Amino acid sequence: MPFTYNRTVRFSDTDAAGVVYFANVLSICHEAYEASLEASSINIKDFFSNTSVAFPIVHANVDFFRPMFCGDKLAISLIPQNIGVDKFEIAYEIVVDDVMYAKAITRHVCIEVNSRSKSEISGEILNWLETNRKEAESAQRRKSREAM
Predict the structure, then answer these.
(1) To bridge 42 with a disulfide, which of 7, 37, 62, 109 should be the other Cys (CB 3.0-4.6 Å)?
(2) What is the chain's pLDDT, residue by residue, as a tens digit (148 residues)?
(3) Closest CA to 35 of 55, 9, 6
(4) Count of domains forming the chain
(5) Which of 15, 63, 72, 98 is catalytic?
C-alpha cells in the first residue's frame, strides 16, 4: 500500500476565503514526504542537515479538484519514483472521505552541496524509492482485483 500521511487542515493553512491557500498544499505534501522518510527509518534531522548532498525541488505542480477547508481530514498518499541516476519524482494524491481533492508532483535532484553539481542518488534514498514503488504496485494490484 502506498505510504499515506493523515493530517487535519488547520486555520493557518487557509486564506481569506477560508480554503487552503494554494502554496500550503505543497507544504502539506512536503510534510508527507518527511513522514515517509521517517517511516523508512531515515533520520530526517541528519537527512536535511547533510552538508554533502541535498535534494532540492526543481519542479512542482498541483491540480485542484475541490476546495479544502479548516477541519478537513486529509489522507495524502505519496508514490515516489526514480526517474534517473540523479533525480526522483513524488506523486501525491490528497483525498478526503475517499474523494480526490488534489494531486501534486514534486521533482527532486540530488546535488553535491559544495559544488551545486548533480550527483547520483544515495543508496538510502534508492532503498526508500524502491520500497515505496513496490508498496504502490502491490496496492494497485489489490485495487485491480477488487474491481473485478
Answers:
(1) 37
(2) 689 999 999 999 999 999 999 999 999 999 999 999 999 999 999 888 888 999 999 999 999 999 999 999 999 999 999 999 999 999 999 999 999 999 999 999 999 999 999 999 988 899 999 888 776 666 566 655 566 5
(3) 6
(4) 1
(5) 15
What's the rounded Cα separation, in Å, for the pair 84 and 69? 37
Q: How far apart are CA 109 and CA 74, in angstroms?
A: 27
Report whether 36 contacts 92 (CB < 8 A). no
Distance from CA of residue 23 to its chain's centroid? 14
Answer yes or no: are the C-beta atoms of 110 and 119 closer than 8 Å.
Answer: yes
CATH code for the domain of 13: 3.10.129.10
Q: Is 15 a catalytic residue?
A: yes
